[in-house]
Structure formats: C-alpha cells, structure tokens
C-alpha cells in the first residue's frame, strides 16, 4: 500500500484549490519527492519545536540561546525561549511528536495517510506554527491538516498555535537568526459532520492526480514506514 503524509495532501489541496500564487504544481512535486534546500525558516521552527518538546535550551550569554539546526546557527532571545517553555508547562500531561496513520480506501487505489501531532492531550491536538509575516486565518481554517489529524487521532478539537518571529526577512541569507517574538491567539478548528467526507474527497482527487500524471514513482510504501 502506498503512503502519503498529511503535509503532502495539504500541498496538493492548496494547488488544487489555487489557494495562492505560491501553491504551484512544482511545490506539490517537490513535497512528494522530499526535495528541500537549506531553509532558515524551517531551522527556526525546528529549534522552537525542540525547546517545546524537550524543555531544554542552551544559554550562551547576553539573553541569547543558541542551537545548530540543519546547517544554521539559530540564535533566540530570552523572550522566545521563555514562551516556548511556558507553552510546554501549560500542557504537563501532553504527548509530543505523536505519530498516527490510517488506511483509506476511497480513491483509485488505497493509501495510508499519516502525520505527527506536535502536542496531544485528552481529546485535543495542538500544532505549533512559527511565522515570519502576518498570519491569515483562512490559511489555517481552510487547511486539511486539522481535519485529517482529527480523523487520524480520533480527536474533536484542533488548535493552531501561532508564534511570529519578527525581523527575519524573506530570502535573507545568513546563518545567524535573532528575532523578536509575538504570540497570536490560537485558531480553533472543530470536528463537524462533513469533515471526513471532505477528507475522502481530497484523497480521491489526489489519487486521480497521481494516476493521470503517472506519478506513482514519487509515492512511498506504507510498510517501509513501520519496518524502520
């Protein structure tokens, strides 16, 4: 059975729906193939996620914390680290980076959809988003990430928690990242009666796209994921 990540399905959905000028077919293909270049945005996000997950940060003096990530020297100020640790303490019984998958048989071929929840507790999933510009609510409410995660994990409530790292400009070339920090109100997404039907339609459209474009070579196998 083929497998597909929720991240890839969301990239496809945005392309299908012409969500923005940035959501191109090339972006879908790069996501499916795992093609990624050096990305300071991703490095900042990974370090922030790591602090939330582990509760640890390395202090190097002058109100600055440092961590190497994906070839970048990420510097965070005390405010960002303090809020990451505070966020972690708000959910003391939570599980972090929880993996879950589910088989779907609603398209041209069966697929195993899987994803990793940043934070899970009781009947709630929370996803941390590190942003570098003003966020737009529709980018999250229209996303299929929350609906697939609620279905995969059997939960009813999903929150996008948005953290804005100001001061890092798009396409800036640097290995040193030290930014200001702004917290936005969480975006709540709730299970509804049509959620799973919408998920099934995305899978149907995705399978049709793969078949019409003959892109099977970009798909990975479910069994390889669980036999590592």
- Report Rg: 18 Å
Overall geometry comes to globular
Number of domains: 1
Q: What portion of residues is helical?
A: 25-40%
Write the CATH architecture name.
Alpha-Beta Complex
Order of helices and strands: EHHHEEEHEEEHHEEEEHEH
Question: Stretches where pLDDT falls below 50 for ≥5 residues?
Answer: none
**Number of DSSP helical runs:** 8
Q: Please count the beta strands (DSSP E, at least 2 residues each).
A: 12
Q: Residue-averaged pLDDT, rounded?
A: 91
CATH class descriptor: Alpha Beta
* CATH topology label: Lambda Exonuclease, Chain A
Provide the β-strand percentage band. Answer: 25-35%
Largest sheet: 8 strands, mixed
Structural class: alpha+beta
Describe this structure in words.
- Helix 1 (6-16) packs antiparallel against helix 2 (25-33).
- This protein is globular.
- The chain has one domain: Lambda Exonuclease, Chain A (Alpha-Beta Complex), CATH 3.90.320.
- The protein has helices spanning 6-16, 25-33, 40-54, 78-90, 138-141, 145-153, 195-213, 222-226; strands at 2-5, 59-61, 64-69, 72-77, 95-104, 111-121, 124-131, 157-166, 176-177, 180-183, 187-190, 220-221.
- The longest helix has 19 residues, at 195-213.
- The strands form 2 sheets. Strands 1, 5, 6, 7, 8, 10, 11 and 12 form an 8-stranded mixed beta sheet that branches.
- By secondary structure, the chain is of the alpha+beta class.
């Amino acid at each position: 059975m083929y497998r597909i990540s929720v991240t890839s399905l969301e990239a496809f959905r945005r392309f299908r729906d012409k969500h923005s000028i940035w959501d191109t077919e090339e972006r879908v293909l790069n996501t499916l193939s795992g093609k990624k270049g050096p990305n300071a945005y991703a490095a900042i996000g990974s370090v922030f996620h790591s602090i939330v997950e582990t509760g640890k940060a390395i202090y190097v003096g002058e109100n600055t914390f440092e961590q190497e990530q994906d070839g970048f020297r990420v510097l965070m100020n005390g405010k960002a680290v303090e809020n990451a640790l505070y966020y972690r303490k708000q959910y003391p019984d939570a599980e972090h980076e929880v993996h879950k998958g589910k088989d779907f048989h609603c398209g041209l071929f069966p697929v195993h959809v899987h994803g990793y929840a940043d934070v899970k507790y009781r009947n709630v999933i929370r996803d941390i988003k590190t942003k570098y510009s003003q966020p737009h609510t529709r980018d999250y409410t229209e996303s299929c990430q929350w609906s697939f995660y609620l279905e995969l994990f059997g939960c009813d409530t999903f929150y996008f928690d948005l953290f804005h790292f100001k001061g890092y400009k798009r396409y800036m070339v640097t290995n040193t990242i030290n930014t200001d920090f702004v917290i936005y109100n969480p975006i709540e997404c709730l299970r509804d009666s049509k959620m799973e039907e919408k998920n099934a339609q995305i899978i149907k459209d995705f399978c049709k796209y793969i078949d019409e474009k003959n892109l099977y070579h970009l798909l990975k196998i479910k069994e390889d994921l669980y036999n590592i």
